[in-house]
Amino acid sequence: MIMDLARMLLDARFYGAKSEPVEDVEIVSETPAGDARLLILRVNGRYLYQVLVDATGQDVLATSPELYLRAHDLPQGAARAVDGEQSNTSLIVDGQMVKVFRRLEAGLNPDVELLSRISDCPHIAPVRGWVTETIDGEEHTLAMVQDFVPDADDGWRYALGFATHDASFGAEASLLGEATRAVHEALAGAFEVGVEKPALTRSLEDLVARAPVLREFAAAARDVYDALDEEVPVQRVHGDLHLGQVLRTPDTYVLIDFEGEPARPLAERRRPDSPLRDVAGILRSLDYAAHVAGASPEWAQAAGDAFLEGYGIGRSPLLDAYVLDKALYEVVYESDNRPDWVHIPLAAVRRILGG
Hints:
Layout (H helix, E strand, L loop, with lengths): L1 H10 L13 E9 L2 E8 L3 E7 L11 H7 L7 E3 L6 E6 L2 E6 L1 E2 L5 H6 L11 E9 L2 E10 L5 E2 H10 L5 H21 L3 E3 L7 H7 L7 H9 L5 E3 L11 E3 L4 E3 L10 H4 L6 H18 L3 H15 L5 H21 L5 H10 L3
Antiparallel strand pairs: 1-2, 2-3, 3-7, 4-5, 5-6, 6-9, 8-9, 10-13, 11-12, 13-14
Helix pairs in contact: 4-9, 5-10, 9-10, 9-11, 11-12
């Protein structure tokens, strides 16, 4: 069974450590769920994962979601899994969405923590409840229930529709800027705010080591960061905002998935940061949309300007630094996962650094 579980994890989209061999799988807890079993697994002594497996050790959460819902006394009814997700598994049932967190970490998941405190904001899907389990003496968030957003289009797919035809995305980008600003203001009102020097927390040396193609840019990037010597406002933010993390409803935009970058430790994702972290994420995503759709170079620039206008700020050296930080990270990500796409963020790095 342990070998079956190891193979299942390596094949699963939600498993985030595929670059490491699965050398050890420990069953931390086991709960009967109909003809399946709900397991918490500790992998390689470090990572905790939540799975629902059948007798052969295959994960069946997406195909038998009602078993999970009954096991945790969650909303009942005909349920279906959302297609295309990678880090988690979301189930639509009775007008609500149940997000099942696959990788577990000690502490309240930021998706729950943030959204439960800003339920009145019209640009998020409010949280209605969540499930936790004590593991090794600490609470871990297993799942959360939030309102399902009907009649909504994926923000990435929606923007690509405009970019493919080289049609102006200005009005849409401005509306998205307004929604992003409203969410930031809601978070600032619900959580502590402060000031500190820009928290570009990723180590430049680490990124260069992981993607040697960045070596030629290291010195110039370091100069950009060293020039940021003033304190800036910091607060809780989304942390991983891009077009795939927003929904276009008939009236507005809704921001989703407030977990932050899954690869970063939970404690790091919960730290206050500049809202420009999220702004930079959307600007980079617009650039990606232009490249993928084959839009003109002006398309992303105009859409970005409109987004900033809707948000209420202009371009600045500080914003450029956050965009650079995001682009450097993207070079590493694409080098590891989609080498054919690495030219997209590399072009942005060169552009920002004037090369």
